[in-house]
């Protein structure tokens, strides 16, 4: 058993993108598990799908909805995550990359939940495409002149690809109303925290260091501070 665990860890860290690979693996496991359990009429996706008006029933779905991928378009989303997510994770490191993904996912779900509360309308949200909007935007900000082949045929620069991605998401949710469309692309706002003069533009470690945030060994530091205060009280 330990050998399988070591092999799996080696697979995750082989290309220095453990978070990206972990998300893809979890998505595929959830996909297979859902279809196996559906034979027994158990809907596994319902435990991870985000319901914008009833999210407090399952609050973890604020962050788990990107794992619910079930169509061909979602397969392309996983491939896109592998490409740009892996690139950003190698550039930023796991801490900054994980912080960005968490904020992009959470900000989008909270924005959609707020708009749903205003209009009293529930929308089931699944898939990677929403947080990938912010991820694509920040990747394009860091590498604006990088050129890709759109649909494998048309050469296009990263900065224009980010606009196309955001536009598709925006118009997809515009069918509900304008506020839903704006909430769907709200992860773009998170991108500006990690680029330009944003607080995390130089990485989470740099931000932590400049703000005297306890980094490595923070638990030991807190323990030592508590001991010193305790000794002062005894004296």
TrEMBL record:
Record's keyword annotation contains Transmembrane: yes
Claim: Ligase is one of the keywords in the record: no
Native source organism of the sequence: Capillibacterium thermochitinicola
GO CC list: membrane
UniProt-listed InterPro entries: Rhomboid-like_sf
Membrane topology designation: Multi-pass membrane protein
Taxonomic lineage of the native organism: Bacteria, Bacillati, Bacillota, Capillibacterium
Keywords: Membrane, Transmembrane, Transmembrane helix
Regions crossing the membrane: 21-42, 62-85, 97-119, 125-142, 149-170, 176-195
Name of the protein: Rhomboid family protein
Compartment annotation: Membrane
């Amino acid at each position: 058993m330990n050998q399988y665990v070591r092999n799996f860890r080696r697979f995750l860290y082989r290309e220095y993108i453990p978070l990206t690979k972990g998300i893809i693996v979890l998505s595929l496991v959830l996909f297979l598990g859902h279809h196996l359990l559906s034979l027994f009429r158990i809907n596994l996706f319902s435990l991870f799908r985000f319901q914008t008006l009833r999210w407090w029933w399952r609050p973890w779905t604020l962050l788990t909805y990107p794992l619910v991928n079930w169509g061909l378009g979602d397969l392309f989303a996983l491939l896109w995550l592998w490409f740009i997510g892996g690139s950003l994770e190698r550039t930023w490191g796991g801490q900054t990359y994980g912080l960005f993904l968490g904020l992009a996912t959470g900000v989008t779900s909270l924005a959609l939940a707020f708009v749903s509360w205003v209009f009293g309308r529930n929308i089931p949200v699944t898939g990677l495409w929403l947080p990938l909007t912010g991820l694509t935007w920040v990747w394009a900000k860091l590498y604006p002149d990088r050129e890709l082949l759109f649909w494998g045929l048309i050469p296009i620069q990263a900065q224009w690809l980010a606009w196309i991605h955001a536009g598709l998401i925006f118009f997809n949710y515009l069918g509900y109303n304008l506020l839903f469309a704006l909430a769907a692309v709200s992860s773009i706002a998170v991108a500006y925290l990690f680029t330009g003069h944003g607080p995390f533009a130089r990485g989470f470690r740099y931000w932590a260091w400049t703000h005297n945030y306890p980094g490595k060994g923070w638990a030991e530091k807190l323990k030592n501070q508590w001991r010193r205060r305790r000794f002062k009280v005894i004296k």
